[in-house]
């Protein structure tokens, strides 16, 4: 929902029509970074969080589609298939 809103500048019902301050929308990749590398940097944890990399904490989800590659109006259709916490599948 958050990434859809950041990219499309609408809620999940596509309101308001045409988007809210559409010129403030970001790319799907920039929205994804806002949920991954951005918070890690702001909490001074960029050396252990925010990326899928050897020796980094492994909290992540597997999505049903690549949100950086689908049309932006299809981002909201993305489902979480798996969730990992500390490298262990929990869902």
From TrEMBL:
One Pfam match: Amidohydro_3
InterPro entries with a match to the protein in the record: Amidohydro_3, Metal-dep_hydrolase_composite
Coiled coil (UniProt feature): none
Residue stretches making up the Amidohydrolase domain: 2-87
GO MF annotation list: hydrolase activity, acting on carbon-nitrogen (but not peptide) bonds
PANTHER family: IMIDAZOLONEPROPIONASE, PROTEIN LONG AFTER FAR-RED 3
Identification of the protein by name: Amidohydrolase
